[in-house]
Amino acid sequence: MSNNKTLWWILLIGWMGGSTYWHVCKIKQLCDAPLSTSTVDTDTNTPTISITPLTIADGTEFNLQSPGNFGFAKSGADANLSGVQAEIDSLASFAAANPGKIITITGLYTSEETNSTTFPNLGVARAAGIKKYLTGKGLPDSLFVLNGKLSDGIVFDPDSMSGGIDFTFAKRIAVTETDLANEQKYESIFKPLDLYFPAASAEYIKTAENEKFLKEAKKFLSDNNDKKLLLTGHTDSDDSAEWNLKLSKKRANIVKAKFVALGMPADRIITNGKGEAEPKASNDSPAGKRANRRVTIIVQ
Fold first, then answer.
1. pLDDT value at position 286?
2. Three-class DSSP labels, 198-258
3. Which InterPro entries does the record associate with it (predicted)?
């Protein structure tokens, strides 16, 4: 009896195995199908988009770095500043503190982009947008030079780019008395600072630097009765040496009167004139003569 049961179990298992084979291999036809594998697209021709960190540097005087950068739409002139807002504001502060600098803003563009602006190319248009932002911070238009540069190496992702703006710095060539005045930097009331005058004017050119000098000198002299403010006038080499000596003394006295009017005691100010005897530049050029027409101030 037990032998009959064993035979029935063997037949049942065989029938189940045959049914399973028939269903999977004959009906589904899966027995000869290749194993499926997951694939990874390794197409090396697809460009990898990455954000190049922004760097703005002027030698050792100024160095800014940001993990972000400017952003532009393809054929667009308006910059996305969200990744560099703090850095561009720091650049504005640096420019305001260094009016003797000229900043060239270069905008990049590609030959596949369309320039729908009124500028000669899209690069200049992009640079102009950055300049507009900086002048909106109170910076004078004269601080900036705009440039456009074709750069077909720019990669878009898919219709936007990262970067596209470069900055370079140069020293402004002083061509006016105002330029010369702005070049003067306050370091200490014990270091000389030069005052300059517009042509045919007795009013010296006021700057944040010489105003700072005057404020600190006034405070120091009020606490130190043994110290004086020395004003020394200088001229160029035009006219006679005798006349220039008189003129330099007159210019120093004019500055003294201005300082006294601002509340500085007259007895704490000493005036002197050197005429053409101590030039700071060559008198062979108009620019040199402008540099020599000055009043030097220092606390002693």
1. 86
2. CCCCCCCCCCHHHHHHHHHHHHHHHHCCCCCEEEEEECCCCCCHHHHHHHHHHHHHHHHHH
3. Bact_OuterMem_StrucFunc, OmpA-like, OmpA-like_sf
